[in-house]
Amino acid sequence: MSNDTLSATAPAPQPAKPVKEKKPASLWSDAWYDLRRNPVFIIGGIMLGLLVIISAFPGLFDTVGVEPSTCSLAQARKGISAEHWFGTDNLGCDVYSRVIHGAKVSIIVGIVSAVVTGLVGGALGLLAGFFGRWVDVLLSRVAEIFFAIPSILGALLILAVIGRDNAGIASVVLALSLLAWPMILRIMRASVITAKHQDYVMAARALGAGPGRIMMRHILPNAVAPVIVVSTINLGAFIAAEAALSFLGVGIQSPQISWGLMIADARNRFLEAPLPLLFPALFLSLTILSVVMLGDAVRDALDPKLR
User: CB burial class (10 A; 0-12, 13-18, 19+) of residue 134?
Assistant: First the structure.
């Protein structure tokens, strides 16, 4: 066979495929990789996700067909039955229905308070840590004033001034957020001070980047991780604080439904009818447990010292 025939039948060489460059790993991609394989994060996320769905769509889970506001003294302190899965309370209200609808208040107060404190404290901490000097001194001194006020006592005072007639979700969120943002400020400030002396920030400043671009593009993504960890853990603390304030009579008021309010109403007849207290306390404990599990998993994933 001639060389011309071989060259005619041989397949033409295929151009080499370009090698796809692998993106460099980042803190966030590594953290998400670890979280997806962490059973604590998965279990906590499923538990909290289910509770969030219950709070958002209580009608999907309120299958007993009894309105939480429908009460009958003739049915007071009844045990578990087909009509009342968790029994009835001192006023004859269905405990299961009230527990399901009471999740809404606790979840909303916890999430909104965590978001508000994270945004306010994070923004002020970013400004204090980046600009320093009089900005840092002013914001730090204001934060120290709020630090001197005990959280629960301060919230009691604020809600007492607002009054029980005006107490509600917004009032509880205001009281909790007003006393919790200084901790986020301190954490964000320390993280920003560490980040602004890194080489990539020096390089951006040398290339002519302005303060706004340096803060938002270079410092904030690398300094916000501790704030996310603390805000996640604070979510459980806010849910517990709302229950405590409602239990003490200054938080959520009737006819709104809250787990803390249910516990307060059932405590006097606990020995006669323990179910109206045990079930809201159980759901409250499970909610806080799920948040603590999430917070621990997020902390392990985002804290470089623990990796």
Answer: exposed
